[in-house]
Each structure stands twice: as structure tokens, then as C-alpha cells.
Amino acid sequence: MDLISAQIEFDDQGRLVSTAYGDIYFQPGQAVSESEYVFLHKGGFYEAIESGTDVTVAELGFGTGLNFLLSAKAFVEKANPGETLHYIAFEKHPIRAADLKKIHGYWPELSTVSDPLRDQYPLLTQGIHRLHFKVADRNINLTLVWGDVSDWLPDMPFQADIWYLDGFAPAKNPDMWADLLWKPIARNTKDGGRVTTFTAAGAVRRGLITAGFDMEKTRGYGRKRDMLIGTIQQNAPRNPMPYDAKSMPWPHVDGLKKVAVIGAGIAGCALADALTRHGIETHIYDTGDGPAGGASGNPVAAVYPKLGVITSPSDRLYRQAFTYARMFYGQLPDSSFDACGVFLMDRNTDAQTRHQKISERIADPALARYVETDSVTGLDLKQGGLWMEQGGTVCPPDLCRALIKRAHQTGRLHTHYNHKVTDLAHLGADAVILANADGINTFAETDHVPVEAVRGQISRWPATPVSQHLKSVLCHKGYITPCKDGAHIIGATFDKGASADHIATAADHTRNLEQLFAEVPELRADTDATRLAGRRAHRTASPDRLPYCGPVLNSNEFEHTHEALSQDATTRFDRLPPYHTGLYILGALGSHGMTTAPWLAEVLACHLAGVPLPASSRHLYDLTPARMAVRQMIRKNPS
Ligand code: SAM
């Protein structure tokens, strides 16, 4: 199972109780003052705000979000305008949104921060979920890690100023206070960073001392005699850059001021938005006379996660990228997102089994659930399928324009249209991100990065009396979108190679129609393919079908490294060629760019801005373009 949500109830004294752990979240009447005392006051949060810089807090046990809400409210009231609170919280059993609404009702004074939290509250699926909101010109970046802290923390690349340790009592919740956590906590603490917790348990104190904290007991809240606070020792053994699950740290660009983005499709536009939001001057270049000239120029694209029957790099990516995209489109004015739902029809028994298995492992039915017979698309198909009610469509050109518009509003975006970039060195940028689809490997620096182009044609099919009832996206072997302005979009063909232009052919319209009628005979209707409108474009993919997001290896050293490796295969990860400082790729988004681009752009922008990423080092390894070189090495040196 993906994850199990919190099992909670209010007892007869009005306390919120976890029935699974046999402990309480809070006592009515004293919850706020206890949290303020133990975490914000004793933990040094108020002092950190006074330092006049961004503050990063990490919390074990998000629960009701009370510690977060109090911290965010204090930050909004006391921090300087423009500053950012980064708050990363781990939670194994998240509270369901409906319960949270009731609980937050106890604290109406926190509604300026609790309302936006609930508006963006992520689906209950394992992963790292990023929320961002602005209140009174202060930025709140909340990263909710749904999952067991011991699974996630060791791979998390961030450094906190303050740690709030707020599991249930150690005797009732031993896995939250396990010895194996102390080292990752110390490793993810900045110089001078602090830790605070309500417990005074000796094992916790000893564990944190061993990991490198100076610990002291201090007066606890109310009738509690003691609690613990600590400060990281100067010489504590810490991992300076924890992006290194596979010894492949992403390089930092010191003193980064200006970034150039090549390509103004969905990848480039999402980057322009994310980079400027993180305060970075951004220059975007495109050969077209505006955004969305390539595959992002299609009038409709579906947004939904490609889920797997087991956890895999792809499943890991899509669950959290989709959750992010939903939140993101909900916040973006004029995003064009239409939450019509997406139905993956059981085309055959294999698909049926697959859909059922996916549904069994997904905890949140809003992410995906199996329906026996179609009661969701409006067509009453006899087949069942996987229903993703939060999926939908966007109009990619409108979406790209909305992103560029928001980026312009920051005053940090410069657009360079009708501009073909041929020489990266002459852009005068501290970092360059290649987001130009199948052009990403057309530069000398990137010619070793494998890229495949796949042509696809979509057709605009006039609605019929039957088809007009379609309310959601229906995916069969291809797909059909709900009727808009009298027609559906059907697609798409799938042929290797790039397309030179966007001109649709009658032959490919016929293929789209034949596929639709074969898969969904209920929709069969006489149609003259020669009269259909449509558009041809190509998507770009990597050999393993996962996107590229990350730095680029220095290709000149590539062959040389192979030689070195064949002599000493054991250290192969250390022998990777160095990276090109400041050169990155965001691309190979295939047919799912509208689902993945916002989250991928946020990952890269956070890396460049030097702030906590909404990703673990496992994600970074799955996505880094250098994975191709690593695999090649493993094939050559399997030992
Ligand atoms: N800080 C919370 C608040 O402000 O409401 C209260 C946290 S409550 C005392 C402890 C939380 O830790 C629970 O929500 C529980 O589900 C979570 N938890 C317990 N074990 C965990 C684990 N191994 N990993 C992540 N979270 C865990």
C-alpha cells in the first residue's frame, strides 16, 4: 500500500487522539501555547527570524500542521518583506483534508496560513510535495514529505537552521526516535543549527550527542519538568552536499545571478516562472516569435500521472509531479487547466489487471481508483478502467503564455524571441538550461546526450450526437478529449523521427479515426478525413523514457573515463567525468510535459537558487542526464 492515513478521533475530553499510536496530538486549550513554547521559543525560531534572512525549519511529525501554522504566522508577522520560510515536514500518516478542516476550526486566528495550506494540501500519496504561498509579501515554501522519515530523510538534500522533533512519545512511537535518524538529522543541519523537542528521554539526548549536537535539558512546558534543546557542534561530521546517493553531486554555481533558458515550450516557460519566482534574473531564447511554437503548440494536452503496479523511477516521478502540477495549476491565473478527469479504459484483460493492481496500491482514491464499468466518462462504456478524477486538460499555448506573464510580473524575465542560439559561451549567463526539445544535443557540449524524436499528429474531430456526451479525457490506445467548440481532439499518431513542419495529413487523420473507432466502437461515425483540421509535431524522449533534468557531463572526458573504469570498476561512480559548470538540461518530456514540467522546473530552480529541493537524491539520480553514462559504464564493467 502506498500509505495509510491517520487514524484519529476526539475523546470525551476534547483531545485529538491517534487510535493507532494510543497517544494524543493535542490538549484543547493549551495546544497553541505549548507549541509556541517548545518549538518556536525554545527552538530559537523567533531569534532566527530576527537574523533577517530566510529561515529553514525541518519537522519530524507534521500531524495537524500546528507547529507549521504557528511558525508561518510568526514569520509573516515578524520577518522582513520578501523573505522566505522553507519548512520541510515528514509525516508517515497524513491527516485527511476533511479532518484537517475540522481541526483547523479550533484555531481561527491561524486562518491566514491554514486556508492556503488546505487549498494546496497534497494528495495522500508517498512523495515530496511542495506547496508555496505568499502572505503579506512573505514567501512560505512548505515541503511535505509523505512517508516514513527513516525511508526519506537519508536521501533528502537540504540543510535546516532548526529541527522540531515532534513524534508521539518515544515509548509509543519508537520508529520516529530510532537511532538511525540522529546522523541524518545532524548531517542536514546548517552550521550553528539547532534542535528542539518536548521529550527529555535519555536515549534521544544520547543519540543526538553522538551524532554531533551539544544537548541540554531545559524547563518543559506546563507541568513537564524537562525538555531538550541542542546546537550542532562546529566539528560535527557532516556531509557537505547531500545529493550524493550515487556519488554524483550536482555542482553548485557560486554567485549565480543570471540564467539563460533555451527554448520557450512548456519546459522553458515553467523554468522562466520558477527561476524568477526564486529571485533569479532569467533570459529565455526561442527561434519562434513567441512561446509554444513546437509540441507545446497543440491546442489540448492531458494532465495525469503514469502510475505503475510497483514503485519505479517513473511511478515515483509521476505521483509527485502530478500532485505538484494540480496544486500549481490551481494557483496560476489563466492556467487553462480543466479538471475534467482522465479515464484509462480497460482495452483488454492485461490492461484490466494492471489497472486493478494500480488501484489496489494507491491509497488516495482521488489520485486513481478502479471502476468496474464506466460510470464516469458520460459515454457509459461497458468496460471498466482506471479513473483519475483530478486529472484533466490544459491548452499548452495558453498555459505557456500564463507562465511567461507571471514571470514578467516579477520584473526578472527578459524574452529573446526570433533568436537562434548557436554558441552557449557567448550568452554571458552564469548558468544555461537547455530546454529546446530535440535541439538539446545539438551543441558541442551536449552531443553525447541521447535524444529521440517521435512524430505525432492530432486531429480535430467534429462532435457527434453520441460523442458530445464525453465529459472526461478517454485514453484507449490513443485518446480523445471532451468536446470543446464543437469538436474533440483525437490522437495521436506515433512515428519515429522529427517532423519538419506542423502540417497535418489526411492519411494520419484516417489512422487516428480508425484507431478510435476500433477501440471505442460506440463512437463510430461517418467522417471525411480529408476535411479534418489537425496539427503535427514531435515529442522528445530519452532512451529510458524518463525526462532529463540536471547538469551535463563534460563530454570531452567521456572516452578517457571509460578507459579508467575498465581498470578499476569498483570506483566507477567516482570516476565520472566532471560536469560542465553551469550547464543543465530540462527536456525529453515525451507526451507528458504538462504533467511533469512544473515540478521538474521547480527542482532545477531550487538547485540554482540554493534552497531546499522538492526532490530526494533518488529522484535526482533517476532524472539526471548523467544516468546514461553511468549505465553505459555498468554495462562495460558489470562487476
Ligand atoms: N507536529 C504535529 C502538529 O503540529 O500537529 C504533531 C505531531 S504528532 C505528536 C506525531 C506525528 O508523527 C504523527 O502525525 C505521526 O503520524 C507522525 N509519525 C509517527 N511516526 C512517524 C515516522 N516514522 N515517520 C514520519 N512520521 C511519523
Commentary on this structure:
With 639 residues, the chain is an alpha/beta fold. It has 17 helices and 28 strands. The strands form five sheets. An eight-stranded mixed β-sheet has the order 6-7-5-4-8-9-11-10, sandwiched between helices. An eight-stranded mixed β-sheet has the order 16-17-15-22-23-24-21-26, with helices on both faces. A six-stranded mixed β-sheet has the order 19-13-12-20-28-27. Helix 1 crosses helix 3 (66-78). The radius of gyration is 26 Å and the shape is globular. Bound molecules: S-adenosylmethionine (SAM).
Q: Which ligands accompany this protein?
A: S-adenosylmethionine
Strand element count:
28
Shape: globular
Straight-line N-to-C gap: 34 Å
Quickly list its features:
29% helix; binds S-adenosylmethionine; single chain; 8-stranded mixed β-sheet; globular; 639 residues; alpha/beta
List the helices and strands and how they pair.
Blueprint: E1 8-10, E2 16-18, E3 23-26, H1 31-41, H2 45-50, E4 55-60, H3 66-78, E5 84-91, H4 97-104, H5 111-120, E6 127-135, E7 138-146, H6 149-152, E8 160-165, H7 182-187, E9 189-197, H8 202-211, E10 213-219, E11 226-232, E12 258-262, H9 266-277, E13 281-285, E14 301-303, H10 313-331, E15 342-345, H11 349-361, E16 369-371, E17 385-388, E18 392-394, H12 396-409, E19 413-416, E20 431-434, E21 452-462, E22 473-475, E23 479-480, E24 487-491, E25 495-496, H13 506-519, E26 533-541, E27 548-553, H14 558-567, E28 579-587, H15 593-609, H16 617-623, H17 627-636
Parallel strand pairs: 4-5, 4-8, 5-7, 8-9, 12-13, 12-20, 13-19, 15-22, 20-28
Antiparallel strand pairs: 1-2, 2-3, 6-7, 9-11, 10-11, 14-18, 15-17, 16-17, 21-24, 21-26, 22-23, 23-24, 27-28
Helix pairs in contact: 1-3, 9-12, 9-15, 10-15
The chain binds S-adenosylmethionine.
S-adenosylmethionine binds at residues 6, 25, 61-67, 90-93, 148-149, 166-168, 173, 175-176.
